[in-house]
Amino acid sequence: MSVFIAPLALVAERWLGYPEQLLKSIGHPVMWFGSLIDGLEHRLNRPDRDARQRRDAGIIALAILLVVAFILSFVVQQFVRGLPLGWVLEVLLAVPFLAQKELGRAVAAVAEALRTSLAAGREAVSHIVGRDPDQLDEAGVARAAIETLAESTSDGVVAPWFWLLLFGLPGIVLYKAINTADSMVGHMDARYRDYGWAPAKLDDAVNWIPARLTAVLITLACFFVPHASPSQAWAAVKRDAGKHASPNAGWPEAAMGGALGFALGGPRSYQGETVDLPVMGQGKSALVGSDILRAHQLYRATLNVLLVLSIVLALMLSTL
């Protein structure tokens, strides 16, 4: 069943997104995860505990999160599958865990804001990146938007689709719970270094295949986008992906940078601290708003390739 739900969920999410009215009335599943993660962190990550105790506490918190997410999603899946046309409900329940529409909208908004002013561009990009926006010039704003687009294509679209395909609704819900935990507590500062160890490591594991698949999808999408080079995309992946501090983020970033002739990465500031990351791709580094739109075009083509792949898999498995 999941192999048929996956392409339908992709289509539904690209069409519907997550309705604003629904967000205002009941919130978003990621917000629900966030509330549980935050509550566990305040209860378990106590300053009087040593490093080992904090790491153990983080493992316990992650286990609680995953057990809750699995039980709820499994029960809901079994319930809706027992209903007439329950597959429609299952598709709609998967929609909030994909981010195609919102990611594309948020990144395109940065390009639109840069047409107005640098200040507007900084404000727009601050909603999608963690780096200090006040330190960014126009090229920095454009690079931040494109890097986020590349990485989020993997962990916001391809990875949740992948786990939905394999394990249905519990798969995509568990993935999103892990990814949310990593984004909230999987940091290297003093507060989270030990407590967030387990979410960070598990997030790396569940994104390992999707990140590499995303690089392949971006490379294939180049065949459908003018002035995008599949050969340069894959050459950048082979040359640069392994240089990134993350075992996964370099793959989609290198693919997108190589495809479009952009030099992504490099130094940036987080909370006043400068971090110098390796360059992903090669070529133009003085990026502008129109370059964000070029990356957005490649992103849309990548989504189309993913959808075709999902449909082909469903048709192939339906004949078995």
From TrEMBL:
Protein's UniProt keywords contain Cell membrane: yes
Cellular localization per UniProt: Cell membrane
Pathway(s) where this gene product acts: Cofactor biosynthesis; adenosylcobalamin biosynthesis
Any one cellular-component term (Gene Ontology): plasma membrane
GO biological process terms, semicolon-separated: cobalamin biosynthetic process
Molecular function per GO: ABC-type vitamin B12 transporter activity; threonine-phosphate decarboxylase activity
Main location class: membrane
Residue intervals passing through the bilayer: 59-80, 161-178, 298-317
Keywords, ordered alphabetically: Cell membrane, Cobalamin biosynthesis, Membrane, Transmembrane, Transmembrane helix
Pfam families recorded: CobD_Cbib
Domain of life: Bacteria
InterPro entries attached to this UniProt entry: Cobalamin_biosynth_CobD/CbiB
Bilayer disposition of the protein: Multi-pass membrane protein
Xref: NCBIfam families: cobal_cbiB
Its biological purpose: Converts cobyric acid to cobinamide by the addition of aminopropanol on the F carboxylic group.
Annotated family: Belongs to the CobD/CbiB family.
Name the record gives this protein: Cobalamin biosynthesis protein CobD
Organism of provenance: Devosia geojensis
